[in-house]
Amino acid sequence: MNQPAPGEEHGTPFSLYAGHYVEYGLLLRQTPPARVGICAIVRDEASYIEEWVAFHRCQGVSLFRIYDNGSTDGTAELLRRLGIEPVLWGGMDENFDSQQRAAYMEGAQMLAGQVDWLAFIDVDEFMFCRSWSLAEALSVILGNVGAIAVQQDVFGSGGQTARLPGPVTTRFTRRAALTHPECRWFKTIARPELVAGFDSVHSVTLKSGAYLMADASPLTRTGPHPGEAARRVEGVIRMHHYMLKSLEEFCAKQAKWATRNLRARMSDDYFFERDRYANAEECRDLASG
User: Fold this and answer.
1) Total count of domains within the chain
2) 3: buried, middle or exposed (CB in 10 Å: 19+, 13-18, 0-12)?
């Protein structure tokens, strides 16, 4: 059976791909997978990073640029066992946002020429394609595209108060309705040589090239934050954001960021307000993966 072209399942051709009306499966057979990397900054993620790395390697990610911002739980040692040499980054000053954007910029500069596409995401974010690998999907994107904004599916606790065994992607299967404003927020995957800078940890400024959304439409933003798109779209590339996890795990995150400027967003209210809308519907897209 022929596969639908990307975006056709949503009724709109995925025009950022070469051959607007050519079968996507044929394109994949003719095009080698893209070289895809991930740039992330971490602190004390030993409990989660092995699953995250394994997941993205299955999506065709071949290179990880991981900045370790003061981990004390063995994250760096675990990364080395996974074949990834962490980069020690930043001190213990309070402004984590500026440290993260500086790390992203350094990562883009270091990996330009080594990868075709570089995603800038966190360890609680899982970027993927449903019918093909991320590397396959990115291999046929037209050369005039500089960056893609991939919006988040926001997952809640699913009523879990304590941490249960098992992978994150199978433990949490309740998400916010995709019409919720939180699902307009995005992270970026970009051609690293075209990145001029970061106007937020969500978004880049480009030297050249189009900044598109996952359905191939131009990225438009109307709010004060550059990481929030004006509307929600659906496309081939997706991202699950397990922003809360269980209450026990969120409390551990609170303790981890108690000395940083992120502590305000790690309040009890942050958890309970978001958990009220982040469990609206069931999504098992990754639960068996």
Assistant:
1) 1
2) middle
